[in-house]
Amino acid sequence: MGDLTLAQLGELEILRRLQPFCAEAVGDDAIVQDLPIGKSLVVTTDVLVEGIHFSEQTVSAEDLGWRCAAANLSDLAAMGAMPLGITVAASLPPSTPWSWLEGVYRGLRACLERYGGQIWGGDLSRAPSAQFAITALGAVATDQALYRHRAQADQVIVVTGVHGAARAGLALLLQEKALTDFPHSQARAEQWILAHRRPQPRFDAIATLKRLTPEFGQIAAMDSSDGLANAVLQICDRSGVGAELNRAWLPIPAGLADWVGLDLATQWTLYGGEDFELVFCLPWPLAQALVKALGSPCQIIGKTTLAPEVKLVDSTELDLGSNPQILTLRDSYQHFGHT
Amino acid sequence: MGDLTLAQLGELEILRRLQPFCAEAVGDDAIVQDLPIGKSLVVTTDVLVEGIHFSEQTVSAEDLGWRCAAANLSDLAAMGAMPLGITVAASLPPSTPWSWLEGVYRGLRACLERYGGQIWGGDLSRAPSAQFAITALGAVATDQALYRHRAQADQVIVVTGVHGAARAGLALLLQEKALTDFPHSQARAEQWILAHRRPQPRFDAIATLKRLTPEFGQIAAMDSSDGLANAVLQICDRSGVGAELNRAWLPIPAGLADWVGLDLATQWTLYGGEDFELVFCLPWPLAQALVKALGSPCQIIGKTTLAPEVKLVDSTELDLGSNPQILTLRDSYQHFGHT
Asked: With contact defined as beta carbons under 8 Å apart, do A250 and A262 qualify?
């Protein structure tokens, strides 16, 4: 029997086939779950739309499922929370093959098996184009959640991972640049493509930080899903501080500038987005301890300041930068452009 | 200044304008909330897609917001839970006027102000057509959740409200039938249209049942969002029982048969959907007490049986029906048709 479409299967049969991917308790109007004692609930929602956030050209069904889960789990990690479950609102054209939807659920489950959490049901609807709205629920020990507004002046800004690799992987997949000009090995190309297809929420960094400090609950954090610059700007805006980022310390993926030039590499590192890494503002000793404990790539990229601007400075001495480039939220990625 | 589109405003400005509709704590990667002590978490997700679940022809922006919230809150009510908050994943074309999105949020907020809960943030994305994926979170006293699988044979099936009114309202809005043939007052037309536009989750029935019985946590319940027949069939399927519904006791809206004929009125009552009422299976004395306490319209429509079929019988004596019509889940509303 060939691959049937959702229209051929009908809703009842689709739901029956999705049941094995879901927590046992799924099947009522809602799911009932107990929260671990002493924990607060953490809730986040992210939508991935076909043609905007993904296309068949760039991700397989399983990659898409993984990315949908990872994008939401990364938000939980940024709050210092551990995942409990997700709900999946899938809107799909009736012509969608069952094997594709099953692939998405396999990817969702693979990501949850890696990082924790179950599929707690959701909703399935016919729609003109495919999209997945995921809500992830997590738990954090009460008073141990991380917020954006906690940064103070003269803290050190630390980021996990390199930034711009997911953007580079997308460029490779979309063949934005002639691949004949690609100066690196196939392995490096695959590494960047994997950064786009299989982002890894940084629960490891959260676990390490918890181990390193008794004052975990005081840390300012955010994930870099909308770009590194955006994360720094949001933290600064909420905290009423500014920042100086050292251009030489930006976490540009090794070899990226050789391929696209330093200007575009810097652009992708600051604004590329979808790296799903974490940005922290920490006291200097804790920042050093985190970098040491996590190992490369995790690096200090600058410091917070009393002055409210977020500046990109060129000197290795952060205070000596002249004519710094000022970053603003308007420059960072926006779903709805402005005129 | 005229009405700006989302593209003209840009994402930052849209989020700034939506902030007043949201709980104060919104603005991080996720929202952190404490669950009331002794309560379990209840989670449900529902999507409304333009052209499938709503159109500009049938609902205003505010009605749409109300319906989005009510559809999800009705699922919480069916579980015996009270609402805490919702997340809103809005996917919208860039040409969407701001005033329309603001209207949707006004409707969402109006429904939550009426029934409880706050807007706990969400996500905003560009998309080819409009849709809203809402996740509602609620709380229920531990071990007091209502489930579909709890029905036992020889219980009484009770439904709140009339069924088919929302479908009749939709028919009026879509002018499926010539309005010149409408045999009733404008007030009745408006009542049915309101049933479609402003469904009311039946938290009142839940509160009444809680007051009437110490064994609240043993009740089988489901909301009738996908139709009355679907709700009875799902409860029976999960509980391993059947049912006999008395055709004469179906909660057909008064006057509906005069307009569309008894056959179509029966069809809409059983399969119309989106009435967002509740279906319970109860011991006989509790069923009577509920009907008395809630007042009309709340009525007994039949009983559960050991035999697994769900039958529509014609006799007022439930056991005497001959050649009964057998209902199946395949007849009830499906988002993806089957071949």
From this structure: no
Q: Which residues of chain A have pLDDT under 70?
A: 1-2, 315-324, 329-339
Taking residue B240's Cβ as centre, other Cβ atoms within 10 Å add up to 12
* Contact yes or no for B202/B309 (Cβ under 8 A): no
Closest CB to A11 among B128, B223, B336? B336
Say if residues B12 and A330 touch (Cβ distance below 8 Å).
Answer: yes
Q: Point out the residue among A27, A35, A43 whose CB comes nearest to the CB of B120.
A: A43
Cα of A1 to nearest chain B Cα, Å:
15
Q: What is the DSSP string of B165-190?
A: HHHHHHHHHTT-S-GGG--S-HHHHH
Name which of A135, A158, A162 is nearest A146 in CA terms.
A158
Q: Which of A211, A165, A236, A203 is nearest to A74 (CA)?
A: A203
Residue reference for tokens 């093959």: A97
Which residues on B lie below 8 Å from A35 (Cβ)? 35, 40-41
User: How many helices and strands in chain B, by DSSP H and E?
Assistant: 11, 12
pLDDT (tens digit per residue) in B114-164: 999 999 999 999 999 999 999 999 999 988 999 999 999 999 999 999 999
DSSP-derived 3-state class of residue A264: helix
pLDDT of the residue at A295 = 87
User: Within 13 Å of residue A193, how many CA atoms lie on the same side as its CB?
Assistant: 15
Say if CB A268 and CB A164 are below 8 A apart: yes
Angstrom CA distances, B249 to B225, B294, B313, B317, stand at 20, 17, 10, 11
Report the 3 state secondary structure along B105-166: HHHHHHHHHHHCCEEEEEEEEECCCCEEEEEEEEEEECCCCCEHHHCCCCCEEEEECCCCHH
SS3 A85: strand
pLDDT for B2: 67
pTM: 0.93
CA atoms within 13 A on the CB side of B325: 13
Pair type for strands A325-327 and B82-92: unpaired
CA distance A324 to A313: 5
**Hunting for tokens 């040409």 — which residue is that?**
B95
Question: How many C-alpha atoms does A217 have within 13 Å on its Cβ side?
Answer: 9
Residue B296: other Cβ atoms inside 10 A: 9
Contact criterion met (CB < 8 Å) for A10 and B89: no
Chain A: give the shortest CA distance to residue B330, in Å.
8
Q: Considering only CA atoms, which of A15, A5, A152 is closest in space to residue A90? A: A15
**Which one-letter amino acid corresponds to residue A78?**
A
Alpha helices in chain A (DSSP H): 6-9, 11-18, 61-78, 98-115, 165-174, 186-197, 203-212, 228-239, 256-260, 262-271, 284-294
- C-alpha distances out from residue A30 to A38, A87, A241, Å: 24, 10, 42
**3-class SS shares of chain B: helix, strand, coil, % to 5:** 40, 25, 35
Quick: pLDDT tens for B180-239: 789 999 999 999 999 999 999 999 999 999 999 999 989 999 999 999 999 999 999 999
pLDDT digits (tens, 9 = 90+) for A284-338: 999 999 999 998 789 999 999 999 999 999 865 545 334 567 777 666 655 565 4
Q: Do B28 and A78 touch (CB under 8 A)?
A: yes
User: How is residue A148 written in tokens?
Assistant: 């954006």
Q: Check: CB of residue B11 under 8 Å from CB of residue B105.
A: no
| Contacts with B131 from chain A: Cβ below 8 Å | 91, 125, 127, 131
